[in-house]
Amino acid sequence: METYKGYSLAEAQAELVRWKLAKQAAATGKSYQIGSRTLTRYDLVEINREIAFFTDICEALTSGRRGGPIKVSARQPRW
């Protein structure tokens, strides 16, 4: 199974869906309280960073790109 940054394509896609759902939930409010229990969500900056991270992984795994510099070498004949 092919992986990139420790994630397979299926895992990265599942995480991407999870973070997109988190963004939808965060749009309804940062936190709320029911009785004595409080839920505080991630902030949008962190959510957007995670969405970008998993989008990059998905693109790398589907396009064959692995990131990093492209190495080019050339040989010139000695005349």
Describe it.
This protein is an alpha+beta fold and 79 residues long. The protein has one domain. Helices cover 48% and strands 15% of the residues. It is built from two helices and four strands; from the N terminus they run ββαββα. Strands 1-2 form a two-stranded antiparallel ribbon. Strand 1 and strand 2 form a beta hairpin. Helix 1 packs antiparallel against helix 2. The protein is elongated. The model has no long low-confidence stretch (mean pLDDT 87).
Set down the secondary structure blueprint.
Layout: E1 3-4, E2 7-8, H1 9-26, E3 31-34, E4 37-40, H2 44-63
Antiparallel strand pairs: 1-2, 3-4
Helix pairs in contact: 1-2
Strand adjacency order, main sheet: 1-2
Uncertain stretches of 5 or more adjacent residues? none
The Cα radius of gyration reads 20 Å
Order of helices and strands: EEHEEH
Strand content: 15-25%
Q: Biggest sheet, in brief? A: 2 strands, antiparallel
The chain-level mean pLDDT equals 87
Number of helices: 2
In which range does the helix fraction lie? 40-55%
> What is the end-to-end distance?
48 Å
From the spread of the alpha carbons, the general shape counts as elongated
| Helix-strand makeup class | alpha+beta
User: Could you give the count of β-strands?
Assistant: 4
Q: Return the domain count.
A: 1
Quickly list its features.
79 residues; alpha+beta; two-stranded antiparallel sheet; 4 strands; 15% strand; elongated
